[in-house]
Amino acid sequence: MRIAILSGSTRLSRQSHRVALALKKWLEQHTSHSAEVLDLAEYRFPILEEVLSRHPEPPEGLEDFAYHIRQADAYLFVSPEYNGSYTAALKNAIDYLKEQEFARKVIGVVSVSSGPLGGIRAALAMQQLVLGIAGYPIPQMLTVGQVQQRFDEEGHLLDASFEKNVRHFLESFLWLSEAVCTKRKAS
Ligand SMILES: Cc1cc2nc3c(=O)[nH]c(=O)nc-3n(C[C@H](O)[C@H](O)[C@H](O)COP(=O)(O)O)c2cc1C
């Protein structure tokens, strides 16, 4: 499978990107799936003026982003909690695309916070987003509290006890993703 990890924080001194990098590392170390991070801070999409399919002059990088989204078989959405939800950058990027890009594909959500609660409100809001784009959510969510104590800037785990949270979440994500991917490709 090809797994796309959307890194949803564009803030200059962001911490959540560490988690996206950590998920990629885990998938590469423990599975034979390919995992790539689509970094919204690198894409720097402007606020939506028109969806991609109707845009007379699509913003730079948008066709490339859409290509990588289309190629992927499953997704991980990683976002910090900002004012009780996920980032505007994540919503903006997804709104450019057609919902069919995500249809019949599994999407796991990962929320990040510098505080102790792990951004659970962002995770729950992302679960709603997954339904809105016709993806298949998984019941498990990974919430990463006190992110600066859990991962370093390159996505290495600083807190060994947190590995089981990552593993349980990703194993659940892969269990459903692999089943859905096999079925989708056969039909
Ligand atoms: C605009 C903004 C709003 C935030 N709102 C919340 C919030 O609602 N809940 C929370 O736990 N942390 C909140 N935070 C703190 C984030 O948890 C913190 O910035 C963390 O490092 C993850 O976000 P980052 O990837 O931007 O670093 C907020 C941060 C910013 C910049």
Explained architecture:
- It is a single chain.
- The protein is an alpha/beta fold.
- The protein has a single domain (2-186), classed as Rossmann fold.
- Helices cover 41% and strands 17% of the residues.
- The protein is built from seven helices and six strands; from the N terminus they run E-H-E-H-H-E-H-E-H-E-E-H-H.
- The chain has helices spanning 17-30, 40-43, 62-71, 88-95, 120-132, 147-150, 163-186, and strands at 2-7, 34-39, 74-80, 106-112, 136-137, 142-144.
- Strands 1, 2, 3, 4, 5 and 6 form a six-stranded parallel beta sheet that branches.
- Helix 5 (120-132) links the parallel strand 4 (106-112) and strand 5.
- The mean pLDDT is 97.
- Residues 9, 11, 14-16, 80-84, 112-115, 117, 119, 147 line the site of flavin mononucleotide.
Provide a concise account of the structure shown:
Helix content is 41%, strand content 17%.
Helices, strands, pairings?
Blueprint: E1 2-7, H1 17-30, E2 34-39, H2 40-43, H3 62-71, E3 74-80, H4 88-95, E4 106-112, H5 120-132, E5 136-137, E6 142-144, H6 147-150, H7 163-186
Parallel strand pairs: 1-2, 1-3, 3-4, 4-5, 4-6
Bound molecules: flavin mononucleotide.
Strand content: 15-25%
Name the helicity range. Answer: 40-55%
What would the average pLDDT be, to the nearest integer?
97
Based on the structure given, which CATH architecture is correct? 3-Layer(aba) Sandwich
Separation, N- and C-terminal Cα atoms: 16 Å
List unreliable stretches of 5+ residues. Answer: none
Query: What is the highest CATH level, the class?
Result: Alpha Beta
Structural domain tally: 1
CATH fold category name: Rossmann fold
CATH superfamily, please? Flavodoxin domain
Radius of gyration: 16 Å
**Overall 3D geometry?**
globular
Bound molecules: flavin mononucleotide
The H-and-E topology, N to C, reads as EHEHHEHEHEEHH
Number of helices: 7
The tally of strands reads: 6
Structural class: alpha/beta
The major beta sheet can be summarized as: 6 strands, parallel
